[in-house]
Amino acid sequence: MKIITRTDALKEAIGNARGEDRTIGFVPTMGALHDGHLSLIRASLSNGDFLVVSIFVNPTQFNDPNDLEHYPRNMKSDLDLLKNYPVDLVFTPEVEEMYPEKDTRVFDLAPFDSIMEGKYRPGHFNGVAQIVSKLFYAVMPDRAYFGQKDFQQLAVIRKLVSILRLDIEIIGCPIIREKDGLAMSSRNKLLSKAGRAAAPFIYQTLQKAVQMKQSHTPEEVREYVISEINNHPLMETEYFEIVEDQNIHSVKSWKTKANIIGCIAVQLNGLRLIDNVYFH
Ligand code: PAF
Predict the structure, then answer these.
(1) What domain count does the chain have?
(2) Pairing state of beta strands 260-268 and 235-244?
(3) Are 104 and 215 contained in the same domain?
(4) How far is the CA of 55 from the centre of ligand 1 (A)?
(5) Which end of the chain has fewer CB atoms surrounding its CB within 10 Å, N or C?
(6) 3-class SS at 170?
(7) Do residues 129 and 267 share a domain?
(8) How many CB atoms lie within 10 A of CB 217?
(9) Does the annotation count 37 as an active-site position?
(10) If DSSP codes are grouped into helix, strand and coil, which group holds residue 278?
(11) Do 141 and 221 lie in a common domain?
(12) Does the beta carbon of 128 lie inside 6 Å of ligand 1?
């Protein structure tokens, strides 16, 4: 496993792999790796890719400086973990390497950047698009792997690839959950003991919501989820929306051929957790 911090060295190593007729797989991360990330790595390895993993906490996607400051970072344990897998390259640039000058690019990510995450984290997806485009230009992978937990991010990346006309297959991988149902996330490490004990309630409520589909309208299910979460002493809903997964339009009826997903963001003990569940 080669660890590289400079883009030119990265391009050279990937060029050599291409020379050996390898397909390039890419798993971009912000570190604090967990089983969710490892599932992306396994997906890439099962495709036989020359595997590049990046670890970079991207400042431009944080709309809250406090969140950036406290984002969990542990490069040593991340690298130790990756050594257990046949990862070919790990790219760990410094901020100056990725942003030698201010990135002023603005991407048209509509409609994905205006509701749900986009509404509560203004500028977040533009920052994601900035860094992912830079990483894509550097790695030029055949396939890139992202977790379905960040459902809206996945939609944004697909849009980005189409805007930039990049020939990269974007592969969404299923949410990986703890035994008690909590969706894995680097931020879970920041939960207090009480917060961690309470957190599975989010997925339990989403599961009840799916069961309610038989006898309730989407709006009734939406109201149920919001009130259940808000009645929990430690939680507050930021949003819960039931939308079609391709265009993220709210659904008024279950009678649509499109796949329907319920997306939630919850404030828990000063932390923000997101999750989602498919209705069909
Ligand atoms: O999902 C993440 O970890 C980040 O948003 C990503 C895609 C690595 C961009 O910084």
Answers:
(1) 2
(2) antiparallel
(3) no
(4) 9
(5) C
(6) strand
(7) no
(8) 15
(9) yes
(10) strand
(11) no
(12) yes
Instruction: Please report, for the domain that includes residue 127, its CATH number.
Output: 3.40.50.620
Q: Are residues 133 and 44 in the same domain?
A: yes
Do 122 and 204 have their domain in common? no
Name the residue of 27, 29, 112, 136 whose CB sits within 8 Å of the most ligand 1 atoms, as the mutation to test its pocket: 29
User: Of 173, 204, 224, which marks where a domain is finished?
Assistant: 173
Atom 3 in ligand 1: residue holding the nearest Cα: 29
Classify residue 269: in a domain, yes or no.
yes
41 within 8 A of 49, measured Cβ to Cβ: no
Chain centroid to Cα 43, Å, comes to 16
Q: Which residue's alpha carbon is at the smallest distance from atom 2 of ligand 1?
A: 29
Edge-to-edge strand ranges of the sheet holding 89-91 = 2-4, 89-91, 50-55, 24-29, 143-147, 169-173
Placement of tokens 């500028």 in the chain: 123
Q: Which residue range is the domain that position 218 belongs to?
A: 186-278
Maximum alpha-carbon separation in the chain: 59
What is the chain's pLDDT, residue by residue, as a tens digit (280 residues)? 999 999 999 999 999 999 999 999 999 999 999 999 999 999 999 999 999 999 999 999 999 999 999 999 999 999 999 999 999 999 999 999 999 999 999 999 999 999 999 999 999 999 999 999 999 999 999 999 999 999 999 999 999 999 999 999 999 999 999 999 999 999 999 999 999 999 999 999 999 999 999 999 999 999 999 999 999 999 999 999 999 999 999 999 999 999 999 999 999 989 999 999 999 9
